[in-house]
Amino acid sequence: ANINAKLFLAASIGVVLSILAALNVIKFCSIKNNAATAADIEKLSNHEENKFEVVPIVEGAVGPESFAFDTLGGGPYTSVSDGCIVKWDQDKHHWINFAVTSP
């Protein structure tokens, strides 16, 4: 009976620690809706060291979901939740529509 009590206590502690760890990860990974305004983007992109281009995402879609490069070092390519795949055009310095996935 003493072994069962110790085993139950150890299992209970493990469950509690797992729940606490999961809650901490969820809280740590939660993203608040801090959408950048056009003015914020303009301010950031005007600095020489902060040149960037926003990934084009249509309203209702989310992303980018992932980034990948091809075997020749082209890209990056990124997917958006609406099925669009866009590619970075190094020569033109902006994102271009590359493909659309089908269901």
UniProtKB/TrEMBL annotation:
It comes from the Eukaryota. InterPro entries: 6-blade_b-propeller_TolB-like. Gene3D superfamilies: TolB, C-terminal domain. GO terms for molecular function: hydrolase activity. GO terms for cellular component: endomembrane system. This is PREDICTED: STRICTOSIDINE SYNTHASE-LIKE. It comes from Prunus dulcis.
